Recover the amino acids of this structure.
């Protein structure tokens, strides 16, 4: 009984603190802002801003630029989350659309931690990645290059290498690319200024991801080639190649017109130690292409010729599923693996970092 009395006292104390805060001027302002944002988003979601050209990235990019300019990054973030549930283009390309929203937040808030507190890991942490791009867009950001370790120092879970901390360090790679005008090799060298090896590698991944997602028909990346699907992974130093192959298949699928079997074959031709990350990268893409359908992911991954290809593909998809569909869906997906537990191990390891 004494234990329940203590719990009851704690609950009552929490209620009183919350009540006092919400009754204060600061609390009322906070509540008004939250309610105002929710009302605005509910109104926005009634519209169909890109009905005439539903699959146009430019249309959606311009739409969110207008929302950011008028209402700020938080309303834009909530709007995209709402449209994600409706499916369609905002769901398929939510990660890319989140980057400019996060970038705006990086300008709006006083620190990385403050901006992160307004978002989450929704859609592969695109908002978090964008925040770092915004931070590097500030005047005087060249000073950050000499103190990169400080950027993520206040992010929760740093001591246990949490997913939030990973997203922040990975986001530094995106930020360095934005700062250097997408000079890949210069950005990789920037990542190497971080203190820890894990941090450096996570940052490298951000550089390579930015290289792929920033590749547009009107502004193609200087570091992707249509006649060499493996470039730049086959051109960078060995220390960078693992992270490069973890990101490269999104570009390879574009070259091979979405033919997963051809990408599996291309991955099988890289150095043996980099085949697994290449297959895992393809699994992440399978997850994104599937709109959360386990059967569709399985259909993509089973195009692999070998058990290793299929298992690593499922592992990559399973890890991605954690963020897009939840832990139980990720575990359910892993049941497609034939005999082994590569997928399950990858999923449980990732869940342990959350």
């Amino acid at each position: 009984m004494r234990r329940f009395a203590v719990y009851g006292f704690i609950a009552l104390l929490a209620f009183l603190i919350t009540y006092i805060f919400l009754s204060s001027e600061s609390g009322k302002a906070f509540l008004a802002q939250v309610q105002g944002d929710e009302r605005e988003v509910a109104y926005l979601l009634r519209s169909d801003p890109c009905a005439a050209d539903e699959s146009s990235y430019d249309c959606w990019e311009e739409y969110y630029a207008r929302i950011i300019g008028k209402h700020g990054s938080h309303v834009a973030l909530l709007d995209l989350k709402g449209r994600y549930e409706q499916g369609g283009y905002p769901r398929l390309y939510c990660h890319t659309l989140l980057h400019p929203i996060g970038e705006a937040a990086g300008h709006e808030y006083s620190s990385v931690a403050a901006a992160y507190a307004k978002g989450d890991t929704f859609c592969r942490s695109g908002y978090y990645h964008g925040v770092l791009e915004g931070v590097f867009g500030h005047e005087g950001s060249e000073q950050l290059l000499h103190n990169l370790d400080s950027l993520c120092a206040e992010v929760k879970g740093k001591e246990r290498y949490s997913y939030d901390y990973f997203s922040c360090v990975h986001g530094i790679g995106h930020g360095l690319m934005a700062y250097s005008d997408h000079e890949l090799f210069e950005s990789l060298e920037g990542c190497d200024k971080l203190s820890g090896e894990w941090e450096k590698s996570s940052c490298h991944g951000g550089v390579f991801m930015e290289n792929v997602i920033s590749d547009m028909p009107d502004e193609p990346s200087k570091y992707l080639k249509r006649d060499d699907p493996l470039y730049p992974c086959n051109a960078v130093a060995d220390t960078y190649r693992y992270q490069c192959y973890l990101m490269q298949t999104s570009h390879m699928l574009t070259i091979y017109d979405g033919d997963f079997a051809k990408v599996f074959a291309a991955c099988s031709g890289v150095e043996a130690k980099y085949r697994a990350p290449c297959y895992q990268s393809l699994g992440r893409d399978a997850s994104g292409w599937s709109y959360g359908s386990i059967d569709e992911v399985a259909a993509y991954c089973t195009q692999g010729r070998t058990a290793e290809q299929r298992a690593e593909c499922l592992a990559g998809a399973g890890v991605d599923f954690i963020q897009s569909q939840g832990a139980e869906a990720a575990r359910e997906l892993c049941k497609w693996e034939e005999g082994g537990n590569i997928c399950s191990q990858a999923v449980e390891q990732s869940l342990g970092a959350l």
Notes: The longest helix spans residues 2-23. The mean pLDDT is 87.
